[in-house]
Design goal:
Structural class: alpha+beta
CATH class: Alpha Beta
Largest sheet: 4 strands, antiparallel
Bound molecules: ribavirin triphosphate, magnesium ion
Order of helices and strands: HEHEHHEHHHEH
Number of helices: 8
Shape: globular
Number of strands: 4
Radius of gyration: 15 Å
Number of domains: 1
C-alpha cells in the first residue's frame, strides 16, 4: 500500500531562467528512466514579481530574497508538475545541492552541477516536502484542481 501511495506522489519542478537555453538537455535528465518521474503538466511563463515573492515567501526575511526575486523573474521559466514514486525526494536528489559549485564536487552528475552556475543561479527548483509541493502546485497551476491529483498530505511525506 505504501508503494502505491508513493507512486502517486507529486512535486513541483521549475526550470529557472538561466537553464531555459538548455531546456532540451534538462528535460532529458528529468525524464531519465531511473528517476521514474512523469510530467503530469507543464506551463511556460514569465513570473511576475508578485508571483515570485509568493512562490518563495518562505525566504522573505533572507538577505538574498530581493536578488532571488530579480533572478527568477529575469526570463521565462518552465513550471512542471511531476509525479512518480517518491517524486519529491527523487527530484531533489536529481537537482543536487543548492549551490552549483558545491554540486560539482559532491554530486557531479546532478542537474545543478551540469547546468547551474553558483548558489543563486542554479538551473532548477524542486519542492522540499509534500506540503510545499501541494502549495507550489496550487500556486503555479491555479486553473487545475491540483488537489485531485495529490495524495492526502502526510501519506508519503
Ligand atoms: P529551490 O527552492 O529553488 O529548489 O532551491 P533549494 O531548496 O535548494 O534552496 P533554498 O534554500 O530554498 O533557496 C531558494 C533559492 O534561492 C537562491 N539562493 N540564493 N545567494 C544565496 O545565498 C542564495 N541562497 C539560495 C537559489 O536560487 C535557491 O535555489
Ligand atoms: Mg527551496
Amino acid at each position: 500500500l505504501q508503494a502505491v501511495e508513493a507512486g502517486r506522489q507529486s512535486t513541483f519542478a521549475m526550470i529557472k531562467p538561466d537553464a531555459m537555453s538548455q531546456l532540451g538537455s534538462v528535460l532529458s535528465e528529468l525524464t531519465e528512466q531511473r528517476l521514474k518521474l512523469r510530467i503530469a503538466g507543464l506551463r511556460l511563463l514569465q513570473l511576475t514579481t508578485a508571483q515570485a515573492r509568493h512562490l518563495y515567501n518562505e525566504h522573505q526575511e533572507r538577505p538574498f530574497f530581493k536578488s532571488l526575486v530579480a533572478y527568477i523573474t529575469s526570463g521565462p521559466v518552465l513550471a512542471l508538475h511531476l509525479t512518480g514514486p517518491g517524486a519529491v525526494g527523487r527530484w531533489r536528489e536529481a537537482l543536487g545541492p543548492t549551490d552549483s559549485a558545491v554540486a560539482r564536487t559532491s554530486a557531479p552528475n546532478s542537474i545543478r552541477a551540469k547546468f547551474g552556475t553558483d548558489k543563486q543561479i542554479n538551473a532548477a527548483h524542486g519542492s522540499d516536502s509534500v506540503a510545499a509541493a501541494h502549495r507550489e502546485l496550487s500556486l503555479m497551476f491555479p486553473e487545475w484542481d491540483v488537489s485531485d491529483r495529490l495524495p492526502s498530505l502526510g501519506s508519503d511525506a
